[in-house]
Specification:
Blueprint lengths: L1 H9 L4 E3 L3 H12 L8 E3 L6 H6 L7 E4 L8 H13 L7 H19 L6 H8 L13 E2 L5 E13 L2 E13 L2
Parallel strand pairs: 1-2, 2-3
Antiparallel strand pairs: 3-5, 4-5, 5-6
C-alpha cells in the first residue's frame, strides 16, 4: 500500500479512482485500512452491483459518479426497478443492466423504423433520428456522433433500509454533446 503514503504526503483533500470488479473490491478494502481512510473517496464503478456487497462496510460513504441510480424518481425507472426486483428479488439493478435495457430498446425502435428490409446502415441512420429517449436513467438522446447526451448523478454508499446501496445525492450535469 505504498501509494496511500504518497497520497497522504501529497496533501490531497480527496481521492478519485477508476476501478471495477475485483480490483475495485481490493482497492476499497485497502483504502479503508490505510492512513488516508478519512479522505473522501470518489470513483465511477467502484461500488456497482455485486462489487458493493463484496466490499461490505468498507464501501460506506464512498461517492460515485454514474449515469444511473436505481432510486431515480421517474416512471421508466420505477417500472424497470419493479420488474428487475420481481425477476431478481435479492438484487438491485446496476448501470450495466440499465445500459443493456436501453440498448435493446434503442435497437427495437431503430429496427422498427428502418422498414421491411433493415440494413446496418438504415438502422444506424434511424438511431440518429430517435430524438428524446425515455429511460430508467431519465430522458436522454444521441448527439451528432451517436454518443449519449445524458445526465450524470452523484451517489454515496449508505444504508438504505437494511442493505448498503448507492443512494442518489444529487444531479450533476448533462454531458455528451
Amino acid at each position: 500500500m505504498p501509494y496511500f503514503s504518497q497520497i497522504k504526503s501529497s496533501g490531497a483533500k480527496a481521492v478519485y479512482t477508476f476501478y471495477a470488479g475485483k480490483a475495485a473490491i481490493d482497492f476499497v478494502k485497502q483504502y479503508k485500512q490505510s492512513d488516508v481512510k478519512d479522505l473522501p473517496l470518489y470513483g465511477a464503478f467502484i461500488t456497482e452491483g455485486s462489487v458493493l456487497q463484496a466490499e461490505g462496510d468498507a464501501a460506506k460513504d464512498v461517492f460515485t459518479v454514474c449515469n444511473y441510480s436505481p432510486d431515480l424518481d421517474n416512471e421508466e425507472n420505477r417500472k424497470f426497478v419493479a420488474a428487475w426486483r420481481q425477476a431478481y428479488p435479492d438484487a438491485t439493478p446496476t448501470t450495466y443492466a440499465m445500459a443493456s435495457y436501453d440498448a435493446a430498446a434503442v435497437l427495437d425502435r431503430a429496427i422498427g423504423a428502418a422498414g421491411a428490409n433493415p440494413t446496418p446502415q438504415s438502422i444506424n441512420e434511424q438511431v440518429g433520428k430517435l430524438g428524446q429517449i425515455s429511460s430508467p436513467r431519465g430522458q436522454w438522446q444521441f448527439g451528432k456522433n451517436h454518443a449519449p447526451i445524458q445526465k450524470w448523478y452523484l451517489r454515496q454508499v449508505r444504508n438504505d433500509g437494511r442493505a448498503l446501496a448507492n443512494v442518489l445525492v444529487q444531479d450533476l450535469a448533462t454531458v455528451g454533446a
